Amino acid sequence: MPDDAEVEVIDIVRAEYVDGYRLHLWFNDGKERIVDFKPFLCQARHPDLKKYLVVDEFKKFKIVYGNLDWNDYEMCFPVADLYDGNI
Questions:
Q1: Where in the sequence is the domain holding 21, given as residue range(s)?
Q2: With the CA atoms of 27, 70, 24 and 14 taken in that order, what torsion angle do they form, in degrees rounded to the nearest 10?
Q3: Does this model's pTM top 0.85?
Q4: Would you say residue 43 lies in a domain?
Q5: Residues 27, 81: contact at Cβ < 8 Å?
Q6: Which is it for strands 32-36 and 22-27: parallel, antiparallel or unpaired?
Q7: At 47, which CATH number?
Q8: Is 38 contained in some domain?
Q9: Is position 29 within any domain?
Q10: Which of 26, 50, 64, 82 is the 20 to 30 Å CA partner of 11?
Q11: H/E element, 70
């Protein structure tokens, strides 16, 4: 890759709760995606993650520095995975 090439960093710029365990995500390049977190949460074994099966807890997400975050990074996902819809 040439030295002067810039790599675009993909960030989440907006996130809204849809229903169940689904969030609508908007990325800084204009892409949008609805991501369903239910399969991940249902397979999670750690109690810190299982608590997000309570929808009121799941809804407490924030966007922090372009990342989707729950409770100070107690649960977070690589932005590239969310962008691709693979969690």
A1: 12-82
A2: -40
A3: yes
A4: yes
A5: no
A6: antiparallel
A7: 3.30.2020.10
A8: yes
A9: yes
A10: 50
A11: strand 67-70
Indicate the SS3 state at residue 71.
Answer: coil
Q: Give residue 65's identity as a one-letter amino acid code.
A: Y
Which candidate, 66, 57, 60, places its Cα nearest to that of 25? 66
Please name every residue paired with 75 in a beta bridge, in sequence order, or none if there are none: 70
Q: Which two tokens stand for residue 7?
A: 């790599």
For the stretch 47-68, pLDDT in tens is 999 999 999 999 999 999 999 9
User: Max Cα separation, the chain?
Assistant: 48
- Residue 3, pLDDT > 70, answer no
- Closest by Cα among 20, 12, 8, 15 to 54: 20
Number of structural domains (the chain) is: 1
